[in-house]
Design goal:
Elements: H1 3-11, H2 15-52, E1 57-61, H3 74-81, E2 86-100, E3 106-114, E4 125-129, E5 139-143, H4 144-150, E6 157-160, E7 167-175, H5 179-182, E8 184-188, H6 189-196, E9 202-207, H7 215-227, E10 230-231, E11 234-242, H8 244-250, H9 252-286, H10 288-296, H11 301-335, H12 350-376, H13 380-385
Parallel strand pairs: 3-8, 5-7
Antiparallel strand pairs: 1-9, 1-11, 2-3, 2-9, 4-7, 5-8, 6-7, 10-11
Helix pairs in contact: 1-11, 2-8, 2-9, 2-11, 2-12, 9-12, 11-12
């Protein structure tokens, strides 16, 4: 009998136990892959948007955890424009604010305050309506996800907070490749300042680069000059400029999501190892006499170890396959929920799938190593006499 056929035959002896073990491991693996996928999608979508827009530096107030709680005067933005090597600067006000639905329910939405010439508009797909112009007030452009959730179209109105003076006309619907931008409202900068009580929360910088070889050095030189800027009215307020990759990795909210994802992944690994260890230990115990016979007819200890680890690996591969399918389906269902679809992007990248398979196989090897070693150490005479 072929060695692999022998392993598969062992797994089918207890089909119910095999199925339940794979199911339990699949649930753990599915949650792990889904959380890793959500984190990866958030990071990659934000980073890729910066790269598409040609942004070299993202600047916020020094010492703040994110652009949401950053706030400084436009004076610093004007000073950054004067720095040699700076090609273009665009500022924004980004924060969460209350929105009152027609039903009277209040929920928080992300608003972004831009000027009409913000170069981020270059990367947005205008589905319907138009952009706002200079001097326009109390108008809003909704991301497609937010518009769908609110059931709003061009010409409708929305109310920020509960103040009837904050009625905004929807003049456009856009689609963005950034999931939370698709779930936000874009309003004129001055309106955003009133709604959020902030002046500037962040700005993006494009740097003039003379050549690819010197690009990194030129960007770093501009970064250092921006970091050195100070507001004469409040010298304690400084700026911190980062490359898009550094900025994305430094965001507290994304760090928290990533930490939670890995924490749950570790818990899933532990649960998977314990479940698989129990199954493999029971399998070895029930087959003690059989293993003794195999040893007696010439099987070396290493071949026994290979057999047990082979069974554990098949458990892992089956769970990884089903877990990946389950994670993809679960993420798709989440994107259908209006409460979270503005913050979660569906789909699994090949890197996340590969990472999920690698961790699951590791679970199989860890869960199978003790039963495998125990089986290999059985003496043929003692194993055959085992009752």
């Amino acid at each position: 009998m072929h060695f692999m056929t022998f392993i598969l035959r062992n797994l089918t002896r207890r089909p119910t136990r095999t199925a339940l073990t794979i199911l339990g491991l699949t649930v753990a693996v599915s949650s792990m892959i889904a959380l890793l996928g959500i984190t990866s999608n958030l990071l990659s979508s934000v980073l890729s948007s910066f790269e598409r827009r040609g942004i070299d530096l993202v600047v916020q107030q020094a010492g703040k955890s994110s652009g949401v709680n950053s706030d400084f005067r436009e004076y610093l933005v004007d000073e950054a424009r004067k720095i040699p090597g700076v090609k273009q600067v665009d500022l924004a006000v980004v924060n969460l604010t209350d929105m009152t639905r027609e039903s009277g329910n209040v929920e928080q939405v992300l608003i972004q305050g831009w000027r009409p010439d913000n170069f981020a508009f270059e990367d947005l797909n205008l589905i319907s309506g138009r952009k706002f112009g200079w001097g326009e007030r109390h108008v809003a452009i909704l991301g497609k996800t937010l518009a769908d959730n609110l059931k709003k179209k061009v010409g409708d109105t929305i109310v920020f907070s509960s103040d009837t003076r904050n009625v905004y006309e929807v003049i456009g619907i856009i689609h963005s490749n950034i999931v939370f931008e698709d779930g936000s409202a874009i309003v004129p900068l001055e309106d955003a300042r009133i709604l959020t009580h902030s002046q500037v929360t962040a700005f993006s910088v494009r740097v003039n680069k003379s050549s690819l070889d010197s690009a990194d050095a030129e960007v770093d030189a501009v970064r250092k000059k921006i970091d050195a800027l100070r507001d004469p009215e409040d010298p304690s307020v400084g700026l911190e400029a980062r490359t898009p990759a550094d900025y994305v990795s430094s965001l507290t909210h994304l760090k928290m999501i990533r930490a939670i994802s890995w924490l749950i992944s570790v818990i899933a690994v532990v649960i998977g190892v314990i479940g698989l260890l129990n199954t493999m230990a029971m399998s070895v115990l029930e087959r003690t006499q059989e293993i003794g016979i195999l040893r007696a007819v010439g099987w070396p200890p290493f071949r026994v170890i290979r057999m047990i680890l082979g069974e554990a690996t098949i458990f892992s591969l089956a769970a990884a396959t089903l877990g990946t399918i389950g994670a993809a389906g679960g993420m798709y269902l989440l994107t259908l929920s209006p409460k979270v679809n503005g913050f979660i992007e569906g789909g699994l990248s090949p890197a996340v799938i590969a990472e999920g398979f690698a961790i699951t196989i590791m679970i199989g090897l860890i869960g199978g190593v003790y039963p495998a070693v125990r089986a290999a150490r059985l003496l043929p005479t003692e194993a055959i006499r085992h009752d």
